[in-house]
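This section describes the prediction task in plain terms. A model, or a person checking by hand, is given the sequence of a single protein chain and must write out its three-dimensional structure as a string of tokens. No templates, partner chains or ligands are provided. The sample shown here is typical of the held-out split.
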Amino acid sequence: MQRFILRQNIGRFRTLLLEQRNEHDTHVLKVMLSRAVRNLAILEAADGFEAEIDPLHAEVQRRIFRDSFEHSSIPHLLLDPRKGLHIVDINAAYEKATLTSAAKIAGSCMFDVFPDKPSDEEADGVSNLRASLKHAAEEGVPNAMHIQRYDVRDASGLFVTKFWKPVNSPIFDAQGRLLYLLHQVEDVTDAIQKRTAEAAGSP
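The expected answer:
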């Protein structure tokens, strides 16, 4: 019932936004839409995606991930596609980029570790990432996201501004069944902030 209500509200908010001309009301509707889309994404993430995982194959692939990506300069995260979307492993580059560690977050739900910044009422990192993971899982092909603002928490719990170029890819076992989702990111924060500063300083 909750999901049905959220979907109904999302459709209604989008329709109202097309009709709205008042700046204040437009902002309010955008906030309400973002909140509804985010809440729906979190509910659906709890269900995960359809996957029949053989523990032996899963462990072999996890070791391959560790061997292949541990020393890569590109941040990678390995995700269990089943209920909860639990983090399986991350490499050192991902630890550095997201200000966390594998020891702290392995086994945790993706969106518990990486929630949207609460003070950003229009944050859409959770909903956009979940949609991309869904595409990769259900279509069986990599999905490259547009540049996404998705702030992360530092050691003190404060949110740090971050912009990313994510690519989400399915990993299959020998029988072609979905085993993991591989989340790869490029931190483009410096480039985006530099571009923004240059635009603000231009006449």
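For orientation: The chain has eight helices and eight strands.
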